[in-house]
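Good morning,

Attaching, inline, the backbone tokens for the sequence recovery test we're adding to the shared suite. The designed sequence is right after.
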């Protein structure tokens, strides 16, 4: 049982520390570690499931949830559909870009302040 805990802690630490592209890799490791801890705790308390099996299932579910969360933070996995694509226009007098938000029916500067 101690080997399972040590292995899961090591995998979580390595996965959360070795990232080169963004949030997805960090969240996979953190989600797996939290899921393994929760699964092992539930398995130990319930007594119906072995602690190692419950930790493995918790790690898999936590890792998957962390991957989806990180992917959304990076702008993928359907997160781009939630943010509208604004066509930007250039105001030569102000020297700034602006866009029209059809939901609000107003123009806004590139930083989001009203124009």
């Amino acid at each position: 049982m101690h080997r399972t805990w040590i292995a899961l802690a090591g995998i979580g630490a390595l996965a959360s520390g070795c990232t080169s592209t963004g949030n997805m890799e960090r969240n996979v490791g953190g989600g797996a570690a939290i899921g393994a801890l929760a699964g092992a705790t539930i398995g130990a308390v319930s007594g119906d499931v072995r602690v190692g099996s419950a930790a493995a299932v918790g790690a898999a579910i936590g890792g998957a949830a962390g991957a989806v969360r990180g992917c959304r933070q990076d702008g993928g996995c359907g997160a781009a559909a939630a943010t509208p694509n604004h066509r930007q226009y250039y105001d030569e007098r102000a020297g700034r870009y602006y866009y029209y938000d059809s939901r609000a029916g107003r123009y806004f500067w590139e930083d989001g302040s009203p124009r």
